[in-house]
Amino acid sequence: MNWIAGDGSPSLRRFPAGFLWGASTSSYQVEGAVHEDGRGVSIWDTFTHTPGKVNRGDTGDIACDSYHRLDEDLELLSELGVGAYRFSVAWPRVQPDGAGEINQRGLDYYRSLVAGLRGRGIVPVATVYHWELPQALEDRGGWPNRDTARRFAEYAELLAGALGDEVGMWITINEPLQAAHQGYRTGTHAPGKTDLGLAAAATHHLLLGHGLAVEAIRGALPGRVPVGIAIDVHPVRAASEDAAPAAASMYAEDRIFLEPVLHASYPTAARAELLPDADLIGPDDMACIAAPIDFLGLNYYRPYYVRLGDWDDLRFSEKPVPGHPGVVSYVPPGLSQTPMGWIIEPDGLYDTLQALDREAPRLPIYITENGCAAEDYLTPEGTVNDDDRIAYLEGHLDAAWRAIRDGVNLAGYFHWALMDNFEWARGYQRRFGLYYVEFGTQRRVPKRSAAFYSKVARTNALSAGVDEIHEDALAAATALRAS
Ligand code: FCB
User: Fold this and answer.
1) Could you tell me whether strands 443-446 and 84-88 are parallel, antiparallel, or unpaired per DSSP bridges?
2) Cβ-count burial 247-277 (b if 16+ within 10 Å, e if not)
3) How buried is 477 (Cβ within 10 angstroms: 0-12 exposed, 13-18 middle, 19+ buried)?
4) Cβ(432) to ligand 1 under 6 A?
5) Rounded CA gap, 182 and 189, in Å?
6) 424 in ligand 1 pocket by Cβ < 6 Å?
7) Which of 62, 102, 200, 415 is the most interior residue, by most CB within 10 Å?
């Protein structure tokens, strides 16, 4: 391999041949068309239409209208020059009630998407579940009900059968930690429940659903298509020795999904109230959950920093860490945050990749999500100068490059997101896209970061900054699309 520089200097850093460059989205965040062609209702439809749940009352009813703008969005991917697109399938679009009846028209949409990608030489990477549980299943208990795991496997089998090996990689579940934690423990995501017991049961059944889905997809497509899961892991850093035990236990809790998938056991250092009761765990469950996967998807955005602190007398940037009395998270001097309040630290990505590679030696890792929100706006000239996103990208791609140089088996990187979209409880106010979306008109405009990322993807290498050639090329392609 032809490594050019190893010290993070702005010289050319090449990625290995065949490294997969992609962009990500998820169905509810971009599709819209929630009442169209027989789509059923998902827990996010219900949640967003419940007053007070989402910033400014935003919903995914229209989102980026990608359901109606398939060709235009496929063109964005071609313009960018990425080799892969990670999208998700809306369960209620293809199986409105989460069981039985298939909705052919919904399935056809994903067939066209996959064919459109293949026709452009782009590998389709499908996430089976990116949080859109059919409401009918939630009404029967949702993820805390073991039956949902079985329904999920049936749905996965159905998709694998219908889309076949045209899909290049299958991801069973996106960030099951957030689905259980925010969905059933803190209630900040759909279905908005706040019950420790429900969250712990959901945890186990999401994992079981993953294991059963791996089996089902492999059954439908024997030995042909790689199957994995996308997990979010965060480094937890202690500011001083006295905070180290708290950091260790927070880190264990962060790994409640990773450990079962890789090692067939729940982390013993996690608080008992976060773990499923023993009577929920069937004799074969852990083996099913830990069935070997073909790759691990990592969603990385930020680390946590913790120290001991007084919850009644919080200092600047401190926040109580729920479940850990006397422990606070904080923003260390010198590190900045994105508008999400997430600390920016590329070394957190480097360290996470190293830790995963040690834990699962040689298992291919894909960064299935990484990116940042920024306060983007259209200038009077019609451009979006998101230099802060370029800096974030440059730092994190450099961390990925260093990890590969140091032996980590990293096989691809997917930027979150292709375009601005519905950012869950934050609504449309948080923009993560490489493309700016003017939501009133649905016009898509490449940001400077799109030119930067396009150059990286096309050259399979990282060099400093954006150059005019790529900015001009992308602007010209967009002008052509609009004419
Ligand atoms: C992740 C989600 C993704 C997106 C990013 C910003 O947790 O998987 O859908 O919202 O955060």
Assistant:
1) unpaired
2) bebbbbbbbbbbbbbbeeebbeebeeebbbe
3) middle
4) yes
5) 5
6) yes
7) 415
118, 136, 438 from 131: Cα distances, Å: 26, 14, 25
CA atoms within 13 A on the CB side of 431: 24
- Clarify whether 175 is annotated catalytic: yes
Report how far residue 443's alpha carbon sits from residue 482's, in angstroms, rounded to the nearest whole number. Answer: 9
> In this structure, are strands 435-438 and 443-446 parallel, antiparallel, or unpaired?
antiparallel
Given this model, what pLDDT does residue 2 score? Answer: 34
Q: Output the average pLDDT for the chain.
A: 96
Q: Are 443 and 71 in contact (CB under 8 A)?
A: no
Residue 87 Cβ inside 6 Å of ligand 1? The answer reads no
Q: Please, which pLDDT band fits residue 10 given cuts at 50, 70 and 90?
A: low
Q: Is the CB of 188 under 6 A from ligand 1?
A: no
Amino acid at 114: V
Model pLDDT, residue 5: 45
Of the candidates 186, 203, 342, the one whose C-alpha atom is nearest the C-alpha of residue 277 is 203
Residue 337 clears pLDDT 90, i.e. is over it = yes
pTM, whole model, 2 decimals? 0.96
What φ, ψ does residue 86 adopt, rounded to 5°?
Answer: -100, 115
DSSP 374: B
Pocket test for ligand 1, best of 25, 58, 416 (most atoms within 8 A of CB): 416
Q: For residue range 182-232, what is the model confidence (pLDDT) as tens digits?
A: 999 999 999 999 999 999 999 999 999 999 999 999 999 987 899 999 999
Give me the pLDDT at residue 389, please.
98
369 belongs to the catalytic site? yes
- Can you read off the two tokens belonging to residue 133? 């549980």
Dump pLDDT digits (tens) for 382-403: 999 999 999 999 999 999 999 9
